[in-house]
Amino acid sequence: MKYFFRRIIIGVLWAWHLLAVLAGQKPHAVVLMYHSVSESGWFFSVSPEEFDRQMRYIKEYYTPVRLRDIVDFLDPVRSQTPKASADAHVYPVRDFISNGAGRTSNGVEGKRPLPNRAVAVTFDDGYKDFETHALPILERYGIPATVFVTVGEVDRKEMGNYLPLLGWDGIRDIGKSNLVEIGSHALTHKKLTRLPPEDAKNEIVSSGIIIERKTRLRPQFFAYPKGSFNDTIMDMVARAGYRGAVSATHLLAAAETNRFAIPRIQIDRSTSFFEFRAKLTNASDWYYWLWSIKEKSLRLFLS
């Protein structure tokens, strides 16, 4: 019953989105967040068949882009963090993971145009099924993806969900693909906002250094573990030399979006194909806004 009403709500909002398109709307981009492509039955896993259907739809009706294309589209002025713009050489990691194109936002040359109906695909954690199931499908449709690896978990065979991880050999192998970019998902997957500042900084800085040391690939982007971040954490990421960072906020990216707080739309086992198509539009923004209002109202009622 819950999914029936969710489908009704999203359908209404989708119709509203189509009216907004006809009336004209600001350019936006969609960043999708996946974890696993497998038949494991895990909530965050999408079946290979469903993932193929989703990627085929994106290829036919949208413009697949790299995450860096969306970052280049975002307003560099709004993306400056107060502390990072004041001192760009606080963390030595800049010498390891930053090059001419990988400076903090105040060093980026400016906003670039974005293709119409742009969609970027990202994966969190670094599961082995990305190499065995997801990558062949991405290659079939020519869709790029950014894989955020949890560095401290790589040497373990699996995470708490018992799904096997890539390992450094696997990460190096997928990094050879022209479609794949490796990003950092910190060291231990802990909420950075709950750590002492020095520990949080170490999670951000050391993970980038280790990725480059192990793969000879410079991670340009960071994914906040569990989507948890604040202004202080954003500042640390900017100072560390990353070009941008992604969250787990269920919104679309617009020109005024901060490149160190890029929202992503989660796709998981509960996402029907109808809902997937709606999530690629700003109907998703309205749905999660209504959902957040409902949750806040419920908490107030129960308190």
Automatic annotation (TrEMBL):
Instruction: Write down the Pfam families for this protein, in alphabetical order.
Output: Polysacc_deac_1
Cross-referenced SUPFAM superfamilies, in alphabetical order?
A: Glycoside hydrolase/deacetylase
An annotated Gene Ontology molecular function = hydrolase activity, acting on carbon-nitrogen (but not peptide) bonds
GO BP terms, alphabetized: carbohydrate metabolic process
- Record-linked Gene3D superfamilies: Glycoside hydrolase/deacetylase
Pull one GO CC term from this UniProt entry: extracellular region
Q: State if Membrane is listed as a keyword.
A: no
Q: Does the keyword Signal apply?
A: yes
**Subcellular localization, per the record?**
Secreted
Chief localisation class: secreted
Coiled-coil ranges (or none): none
Signal sequence: where? none
The record lists the membrane-crossing segments as none
Q: Where is the NodB homology domain?
A: 117-303
* Family annotation (InterPro entries): Glyco_hydro/deAcase_b/a-brl, NODB_dom, Polysacch_Deacetylase
**Keywords annotated in UniProt:** Signal
Task: Give the protein's recorded name.
Answer: NodB homology domain-containing protein
Traced from the root, the source organism's taxonomic lineage reads: Bacteria, Candidatus Sungiibacteriota
